[in-house]
Write a structure and sequence with these properties.
Blueprint: H1 3-12, H2 19-40, E1 48-49, E2 56-59, E3 65-68, H3 71-75, E4 77-80, E5 110-113, H4 121-128, E6 133-137, E7 145-147, E8 163-165, H5 167-179, E9 182-186, H6 204-215, E10 220-224, H7 243-260, E11 265-271, H8 276-284, E12 291-297, H9 316-319, H10 321-336, E13 342-348, H11 362-377, E14 381-385, H12 404-415, E15 416-421, E16 431-438, E17 445-451, E18 458-462, E19 466-472, E20 482-483, E21 486-487, E22 502-504, E23 507-511, E24 515-521
Parallel strand pairs: 1-18, 3-6, 3-14, 6-9, 7-8, 9-10, 10-11, 11-12, 12-13, 13-14
Antiparallel strand pairs: 2-15, 4-5, 15-16, 16-17, 17-24, 18-23, 19-20, 19-22, 19-24, 20-21
Length: 530
């Protein structure tokens, strides 16, 4: 301890016996400060970024950031019960044959929900703010949902199905998608009701849905044959459904869709694992895919027996899971269907509805870090699960209030363009930096700077003036998030707040601990962004 620090401690000590304790406390604080400074580095030691010279490394689809609405949200039924759930006060329909919960799952994990009202003004306004996007209507429940020739929502599913999608419900999906500039992605029923006596998949159900979509002036932009064929046992497939059966059915599906809806992209395999089975199912699709699709969750949620904790939510191992998953499917793509684009068609914090902290700012680090990583890795589309259901929804399912991940998604949409740049800084412990051309600004650059340290700042040297949009929270587990110190919330009439950056001069820029910052550099003069 320095002499002036000891002198100060003597002034604060009221009695001689207090002095050792105060000296110890000051020493501890100084040690913590020195460690923090060592991690952050002095301004002269901070890594430099020269925005004008960042090279282009690729592009992403204009609908790169997209979302799911589960099929069961459209039809009504049992879905993952939120941890802070309240009883559904809307009337539950009369019981009908079969079960609308996935086979081999605990029904206590679910809660009934009425069909989602897609005409709600707040829902449409908030979804439109993320446009353009893809809207995927699928999920485990889609595997055993029949498309009805009737608009009667009370009709029971026919044998071999567990749910009913009416024409009016699908028409509401089409109307919603058109109103929010979203293109529809889906999958088809593959349960016993869609098969002949020999167990072979029949195209009747898919044909009815596709033709009805065309008849009301719309189309299906892309489709997977089924949801997660590597989890066939809980997905409604016949007992013993294996790779050979999948390969046989996929060939029928591919021929049907090419003939009936040639404009629809065929995605696959839509598997969730990084296993030998996932590899086999990928190979079973042959070279008939227009794009490779996969699903990724870093863990199971607590409701399904998972053990992921909030303490690990900012760890390099947890965040790096996105890289490991895409590397697995990219390797398969390179060997089996070289050059095909990769789509992540379902992802969130944890499977089975998400963990309790999926509603908090803590998960926004994963959400935005995943977008940054995958854009850099060449993934074309990332579809978050879900827009507004259970704990992993971008919106609260009861109030449709934006959660922290929604605000992160909105900033990405407004600030990050489709051209991906190399920031020149590899991911290191506590500091992740991604770079894109600025959206709608020729020559501009936007950096996404994520400080995952819980107790230390980081600094960058920037050669050009910028505007900072920094997200933080009083506590990372808070469900409210601030931007540049102001809590983000909807205004009167559900208006979105004005998003204004904080002017920042060229030079050393410090990023506080546990913050996410978009650094917008409109005068970067980057030729790759012109």
């Amino acid at each position: 301890m320095l002499p002036f620090e000891e002198a100060g401690a003597r002034r604060w000590a009221r009695t001689p016996t207090e002095l050792p304790a105060i000296l110890c406390a000051l020493g501890c604080l100084i040690s913590i400060w020195l460690v923090a400074q060592a991690r952050a580095g002095t301004p002269s030691e901070a890594p430099s970024v020269i925005p004008s010279s960042l090279p282009r490394i690729g592009t992403v689809d204009e609908r790169f950031q997209s979302y799911n609405i589960e099929m069961v949200e459209i039809t009504g039924g049992q879905f993952w019960k939120p941890y802070r759930s309240q009883p559904d006060t809307r009337p539950m329909p009369a019981s009908r044959p079969g079960s609308d919960t996935p086979p081999r799952t605990d029904s206590n994990l679910f809660q009934y929900r009425s069909p989602l009202d897609l005409t709600q003004g707040r829902l449409r306004k908030l979804a439109a703010a993320l446009a353009p996007a893809y809207l995927r209507v699928s999920g485990t429940w889609a595997n055993s949902t029949t498309f009805s020739d009737s608009d009667d929502v009370s009709s029971a599913p026919s044998a071999g199905f567990n749910g009913v999608l009416t024409r009016q419900q699908w028409r509401s999906v089409v109307d919603f998608a058109q109103s929010v500039d979203a293109r529809i992605v889906t999958s088809f029923a593959i349960s016993a009701g869609s098969r002949d006596a020999a167990g072979v998949w029949q195209q009747d159900q898919a044909d009815r849905l596709v033709r009805f979509t065309h008849s009301i002036g719309s189309k299906i932009a892309a489709a997977e044959f089924m949801n997660e064929p590597d989890l066939a046992a809980i997905g409604g497939a016949p007992a013993g459904y294996d790779t050979a059966a999948y390969q046989r059915d996929f060939k029928i599906f591919e021929m049907f869709l090419r003939q009936t809806s040639p404009e629809t992209l065929i995605l696959g395999p839509g598997t969730i694992g990084q296993t030998a089975l996932a590899s086999d199912l990928f190979a079973a699709t042959g070279s008939d895919l227009d794009a490779v699709s996969y699903h990724h969750y870093g863990a199971l949620s607590a409701r399904c027996g998972g053990h992921h904790t909030p303490e690990a939510a900012l760890s390099e191992d947890w965040l790096g899971g996105a890289d490991r998953a895409v590397a697995f499917y990219r390797d398969l793509r390179d060997r089996l269907t070289p050059g095909k684009p990769i789509w992540l068609t379902e992802t969130a914090e944890a499977a089975c509805g998400g963990n309790p902290w999926a509603v908090s700012f803590l998960d926004t680090f994963r959400y935005l870090d995943q977008l940054g990583r995958l854009a850099k890795a060449g993934v074309q589309v990332v579809m978050h699960n879900t827009l507004a259901a259970s704990d992993y929804g971008l919106l609260d399912e009861r109030t449709l209030e934006p959660r922290p991940n929604y605000w992160g998604a909105l900033l990405w949409r407004q600030l990050m363009g489709t051209t991906v740049l190399d920031a020149g800084l590899p991911i290191r412990r506590g500091l992740h930096v991604y770079a894109h051309c600025q959206r709608d600004k020729s020559g501009g650059v936007t950096l996404l700077v994520i400080n995952t340290e819980r107790d230390a700042p980081h600094a960058l040297m920037l050669s050009t003036a910028s505007a900072l949009y920094t997200l933080d929270a009083v506590n990372p587990l808070d469900a409210r998030v601030r931007m540049n110190g102001t809590t983000l919330a909807l205004g009167a009439g559900d208006t979105l707040p004005s998003i204004q950056g904080a002017p920042t001069p060229a030079g050393a820029v410090t990023f506080a601990q546990a913050t996410i910052s978009f650094v917008v550099i409109p005068e970067a003069a980057n030729n790759a962004c012109r």
